[in-house]
Amino acid sequence: MTTVEPPTVEFPFRHPGEPFPPPVYADYRYRPGLVSCILPDGNRAWLITRYDDVRTVLTHPGISSNPEHPGFPHLGATLGVPRQDQIPGWFVGLDPPEHGRFRKALIPEFGARRIRELRPTIQETVDRLLDTMLARGSQADLVADFALPVPSLIISTMLGVPTTDRDFFESRTRTLVAIVASTDEQRDTATRELLRYLHRLISIKQNWPADDLVSRLLATGVIAPAELSGALMLLLIAGHETTGDNIALGVVSLLLHPRWAGAEGVADELLRLHSVADMVSLRVAVQDVEIAGQLIRAGEGIIPLVAAANHDASVFECPERFDPGRSSARQHVAFGYGMHQCLGANLARAELEIAFRTLFERIPSLQLAIPVEELPFKYNGVIFGLHKLPVRW
Fold it and tell me: How far apart are CA 338 and CA 240, in angstroms?
């Protein structure tokens, strides 16, 4: 166990103009033991930056994802993982056995067979969006016109939500994941509006069930209606913002490296490279544990930094290089790891693969409309990405 006094850094770690992941992540990895940080509420949390350490934290039985435990790290009053008394059914904040109840009910809806059946719908959605974009002229904002609508329309279809409500979901989700651009009051309002809508949707499906995810979940009776709205809100946010940001950032990488467009394995390498959901896997120790020689006491917060793990050179050679041919690409932890691994991994991979292939097949002359260094990156969000992506063809 290390006897070196651990260094403490300030939160947040991203700064406008710097590359992502933040260069300091590499410095944290090479230091002995761990690094701690001071959160906005003044409490301290341990930062986990090495690949093996991140996987250990995400599977350790003495480490919890439940925000009701004392010492759980909070990124802000309305950011991070809500408690069950705030949003019932937000199952990523649950430990076994309750977490398993939700996951078991949802796995069939996101399994390989279901996603194979959904691929024609994804393809049709991507083609329809590109038809509309091309009909408008020879330039577009690929975030607003393509990257965000793809996952939004797909998850809306899965839930049985009218596509006319896409703008509502997108605007409320953007408000919820912005660290600086949104106030606590604005995020509270967006949360209430989303939950109110989902309550109405569930009531409709109870009376008029259809062939959709909500109706099937209600039919099982495993998840109570009062919990289902929170679970659906989690699916909307997790499946919308992260995939949209991965599409947008992935397009930038493929425009800079066009020979890889349509290559096998490109989606996983882009997921590893960009690691947009860097700070979502918040944890707290519920017993004394040792990570990287550092004693973490019960009640101390832990933040596994996914982007740091996915850029660990001991696992991914030259991690800053975009290389879909690397054999280790699929080992990334962009979807998390262990029992909390993202349920939507199969869906996200299918959306990314179809979106990239179709976009570059249909618009081979696609190019950035502004220099890369002028692109407006989301330095102030829980999820990293782009506010806009101006392109022309």
Answer: 22
Question: Closest by alpha carbon to 34, among 247, 204, 289, 274?
Answer: 289
Structure tokens at 113: 């067979």
Whether the CB-CB separation of 200 and 130 falls below 8 Å is answered with no
Q: Which residues of 336-371 are buried (b: 16+ CB within 10 A; e: fewer)?
A: bbeebebbbbbbbbbbbbbbbbbbbeebeebebbee
- Residue of higher predicted confidence among 126 and 172: 126
DSSP letter, residue 386: B
DSSP state, 28? H
Helices (H), 96-224: 98-110, 112-135, 142, 149-159, 166-177, 184-207, 213-220
- 382: pLDDT strictly greater than 90: no
Is residue 76 helix, strand or coil? coil
What does the block give as tokens for 255? Answer: 């425009």
Most confident range, picked from 27-41, 257-271, 359-373: 359-373
Token pair recorded at residue 124: 């049709």
Q: Is the Cα torsion angle 95, 152, 187, 17 positive or negative in sign?
A: positive
The DSSP result for 221-267, as a single string, is: -SS-HHHHHHHHHHHHHHHHHHHHHHHHHHHHHHHHSGGGTT-TTHH
Phi, psi at 19, each rounded to 5°: -70, 165
> DSSP letter at 341?
S
Beta bridge partners, 328, equal none
Distance CA 155, CA 159 (A): 6
Contact yes or no for 20/307 (Cβ under 8 A): yes
320: left (phi > 0), else alpha (psi -120 to 50), else beta? alpha
> What is the per-residue pLDDT across 65-74, written as a single tens digit (0 to 9) for each?
999 999 999 8
Nearest to 73, CA basis, from 12, 20, 1: 12
DSSP H or E run through 347: helix 345-362
